[in-house]
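Researcher: Excuse me, tokens okay?
***
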Amino acid sequence: MRISEWPVTERPRERLLEHGAAVLSDAELLAVILRTGMRGKTAVELGRELIERFGDVAGVFAADLSGVKGLGPAKRAQFEAALELARRSLKDGLRAGNALTSPGAVRDYLRLAIADLPHEVFVCLWLDAQHRVLEVEELFRGSLTQTSVYPREIVKAGLKANAAAVIFAHNHPSGAAQPSQADELLTRNLKDALALVDIKVLDHFIVAGRQALSFAERGLL
């Protein structure tokens, strides 16, 4: 039976409009994005199948969906658009608030932005004197296991942004969110270099999967 043939009170879109998105299950929310199912499956059944296949909603959005039956270019574009809107919403929230008083928002943004990349990137969140985000900038991109970071370029970027402080972040595509000795040494070197131009290093996050380790919380700064 198609969703359009269900009682109105059971249809995901109508329930969302009447009661809010929070009342819907993960599969129902995916169904709203998908809009339609495929032959023999409703959008809800397709959403449930995706969750079972990829583990959870985060796994669905992180997965390469190009080979999934029932997900043509239009549906994949809808998923990508929803994910990008979530990234932009979180970034806008960071710009409006104090990054230090909303560490959860910083973590959420970084997990969406860099956790699932197939290569390492090094990102700077440049902050003003009130610790509001001025700019989020990817400065370096590397391979699966490493990337080269140059302090001189980071100092130049911080001055260009007219930043008072910075939060660093990089991802570990092939491993756990644990700092290496090289990560700790790099952070100390960057902290010393930026201190010369009065830019304070507030934190450094390592992102891997759904984890985002904070140097500040570990006492590594």
